[in-house]
Amino acid sequence: MFSIRRLFLILPLFCFLYAPPVHAFWDSPSLPKWGDYDEHHAWHDAGWWWDNRADWARAHHPEWWGDFDETHHWQPAWWWWQNQHQAWIDAHHPEWWGDVYEGQWYPAVSWYDYSPSWVQLHHPEWWGDVYQGSWYPAGWWWTLQHDWVLSHHPEWWGSAYNGIWYPAPWWCRFHPDQCQAHPDWWVAEYQGMWYPAGWWWQFHPDQCHLDHPDWWGDFDNNHYWRPAEWWWANDPNWARQYHPDWQGAFDDHHVWHTDSWWMDKNPTWAQQHYPQWQGAFDSNHKWRDVHYWAVKDPQYVQQKHPEWVKGLRTTLPQTFGRQDQTLQRQQAARMNLFDQQQHEYEQNQRKYGASAGAANARNEQAMNEQRNQQMQTQQREQSQEMQRQAQQAERNQQMQAEHQQQAAQQQRERQQQAMVEQQRRQPNWNAQRAELQRQNQAQSAALERMHTTQLRAYNFPTAHSAPPMRAAAPQMHGGGGAPPHGGGGGNEKHR
Fold first, then answer.
1. DSSP assignment, residue 455?
2. Is residue 471 part of a domain?
3. In this predicted structure, what is the pLDDT of residue 405?
4. Which of 15, 70, 99, 383 has the smallest number of CB atoms closer than 10 Å to its CB?
5. 464: helix, coil or strand?
């Protein structure tokens, strides 16, 4: 009969077959650990706060994205993605900005911490900025730093609903009447989702020129799109020199508005103080600037307002030249962002590679300590049975040698599998670069076709000159990007 004592002698040797798994320190985003301390300095996660003190969580941590499940227990946004999938988030919470990597959804803050360049390059619609070293979405800024948003990010359009701030795309999707009441919210629909002007100017500039020529704005030195309102408030000389078609004026609160806004809100004052503003009302009785009509309906201009044509013969070619120059500058900035994204990825890979090496060393040390402890236990047991010790020791040595060989082989196999997995996940940077170049070429060709069509409509020569690139635009604070499987806010720190 197989004795219990003999089992204790043999069992430790089978432990040599086991080796702790090597942790995969892959370069990927990490989920945020949302939570805060209560008045007793006890830490609670976001779920506890929302379940027990929802009003406090809503007022102090609007960046904690989530909702209550059917049991009325609060779950974070990634839980909803895992259980309800992307379609549910798109349908119920499009304001939860995020993306998927390796079967896991990560919120915008995870992506920004992982690769700011990737966010800026691929998700300019994720509005947010950095505060004390951490990135926060626009809703957090609107709730806790409202005045700062008004002066630094007038393009973060939106409003509060039941104590929570929502961006303009959310309003346009669920409350279109409110969106229509804010014509200064420059957003439009694309494939069932709403996107702000900055997203459109980055990915579809030709469509902006054709469909939304009144979305005035430009990219700053950090490749972040800012509306004319911001430029007139922060660098009026540059706006006046390079965008003379941005017609408008400041109100009593020193907030700049376009000429169309003034003609809608206070036409008597606008006509009295700015008689040089040219334009007309459309079929919806909305006043449109002459440059809008020049692009949208050349036939209407020539038939109804031939007095505009003389001025357009001078301004249109210059405007098209500036648009060409802006697009070239934007595309160069996108390529620079792509290079930054690759650099950030390689930095993360080196960091995680070093962590993996340290983990392997710790695992090997733990295995050695485990073996030593097992051998010591075995020796104590064997000392009680001196007669059997020699025979058992010989068998144990043979089994130990065999199991050590097996453990070493398993370790080599795991390392080989890790190398294969790492190679599989390595981004194809050449293919991504080629795709980005293809997109740039397509944008340039589309813009050139639009210019040619517009110039021919007015019987202009198709050749047009471009103004010089702007000198150093203000180094204020910039924008803010494909993940390895593969777009805003700034990066300024604020006091």
1. H
2. yes
3. 79
4. 70
5. coil
Tokens 């044509």 correspond to what residue? Answer: 309
In a domain, 35, yes or no: no
Place of tokens 């009325």: 72
Residue 371 falls inside a structural domain: no
Whether the Cβ atoms of residue 77 and residue 89 lie closer than 8 Å to each other: yes
What is the helix (H) or strand (E) element at residue 250, kind and residue range? strand 248-250
Give the pTM: 0.73
Domain count of the fold of the chain: 1
Q: How many other CB atoms are found less than 10 A from the CB of residue 94?
A: 18
Torsions phi, psi of 247, nearest 5?
A: -90, 135
390 occurs within a structural domain: no
Secondary structure percentages of the chain, helix, strand, coil, to 5: 60, 15, 30
Q: Apex CA 13: angle with CA 10 and CA 17, to 5°?
A: 135
Cβ-contact 300, 283 below 8 angstroms: no
Element (H, E) at 239: helix 236-242
Angle between helices 429-457 and 309-383 (to 10 degrees): 170
Q: What is the mean pLDDT of each run of 10 residues along the chain (495 residues)?
A: 44 37 52 96 97 96 97 97 93 95 94 92 95 96 95 95 94 94 94 95 91 94 93 96 94 94 94 96 92 92 92 86 87 86 81 58 63 70 66 74 76 65 67 89 88 83 44 37 37 38
Q: Which of 174, 287, 205 is nearest to 158 (CA)?
A: 174
**Angle ∠(483,81,192) on CA atoms, nearest 5:** 75
Task: Compute CA 351 distance to the chain's CA centroid, rounded to the nearest angstrom.
Answer: 22
Q: Is the dihedral of CA 23, 24, 27, 31 positive or negative?
A: negative
**Domain with 165 in it:** 72-343+398-495
pLDDT at 420: 58
How far is the first Cα of the chain from the last one, in angstroms, to the nearest whole number? 77
